[in-house]
Amino acid sequence: MVESKYKKHLTFWAFVMPCLILYLIFFITPFLQGIRISFTNWDGLTPKSPIVVSKTEFDQNILAKLTNENDRNYLKEIYKYEKKDDSYHRLALKQKDRKKVERIFRRAKWEPAGNRFVGFENYKKIFSGKTAKDFYPHHYTIKKYDASTKLPAKISKKEFESELLKKCSDEDKNVLLHAYKISGDKYKINQHYNETDVDNKIWKLPEVEGGTAAKPSAFIKELKTAISSGKEHEVSKIAEKYIKENNLSKNSILTINSWVKDYEKIYQVKKLMDSTWILKKFNMGVIGFTLFFAFFSVIGINLVAFGLALALDSGIKGQKWMRSAFFIPNVLSMVIVALIWSMLFVQLLPAVTGVEKWLSDSNKTPWLLVLVSIWQGAGYYMIIYLAGLQNIPGELIEAAKIDGASWGHRFKYITLPLLAPSFTISLFLSIANALKSFDLIYAMIGQSGYAYGTVPFVMDIYFDAYSQKQAGLATAKAMVLFLIIFAISGIQLAISKRKEIEQ
After folding, report:
1. Is the dihedral of CA 181, 182, 184, 186 positive or negative?
2. What pTM was estimated for this model as a whole?
3. What are phi and psi of 5, to 5 degrees?
């Protein structure tokens, strides 16, 4: 019995139509809504029909610009004047009434300050470099010492030699080495350069301790300011004034003169460290880190997953429980994974290795995040590669062995070509997931990632929307990310499919 064409079409649409409707509701509609929001300056809170509008704004910029009396009357019914804050407050509305209010506002050519159409302004900010500087790769400097503070009592040997001595001339090196002496793995300040000890010379003057002289706090501060400014004549005037006012003895005058010479030496070291102890750093920014993370995690995950699949397909003992063990990290919640590895990096590794900084080191953090991502994701892709390996006909392998083909030749000419579909799907999924990475990095780093240059694209969108209250800009970035993923994934799929056909 031949089924009628009408019944075939009816059956087809009976299955397809619900899918199309759901696709329209849960993808197309939110996507179009996202495009609309990306052209606004929405702060994420202010609706198109705001709950509160000031009286001046409501009267002059809305009611006065409406030509239809019915529109004005309708708004007066919806918005009630509250004398206590001199504003109009909106009543609770159903969706239908809210849309009507929005239409009336559009006829008045009015939009709330926190939800206005700005055209391509958000996209211009993104592509012209006018968004936050942390969004793009950039160089920056860290000033590790400021001359307005006291000299550090201790400096690690590594920092002192690589960040200070290495940058100084021979003369400046002698100045620093006179102020600091090596002691174990640290350089400790010479007592004569300890500012507190030097200041105590004046605090211990007989006249000060006896109470006949004024407390020298302001006096010391004035002297330090004059020395720092290079005003030698001012130093003498300040000292003479204090000496006369407090009728100091000759020994006390000598002590003050000695203090001036000591502080001049201290300030020389301060000035030298202030101008020298500056580190130049490179921050990958959101774009740079996203590409870095995607590139290395995709390569790492697929290499590890493929290696594990080859090992488990070789028939080694215990391959069933090993397969489960390697897959378990993928089953775990990303938050749990982040907490486990954070504990290792913050508590265990510093105790075992003696290296204190792991996640807080901007040089290590990006690589550590890639490492955790590989550990967590490799098990999933291992299953894909393992399924591909086990679908290779055993007859082909046996025939190749009989013909005398080595393992390398069998791998190159049989295994790899037949695994092309597995490579295609694994690369597609790993690239898309890497570019969309959020939860693992958010749980491990959080907002401090901006300081280390380890904020991925999605996390930056999240902070823009919820921390910076720039939902319009965040949505525009989301649209850009969609296009990036679409383009990269599309190119990768096209190349991989072409390779499959060629093989």
Report:
1. positive
2. 0.81
3. -60, -35
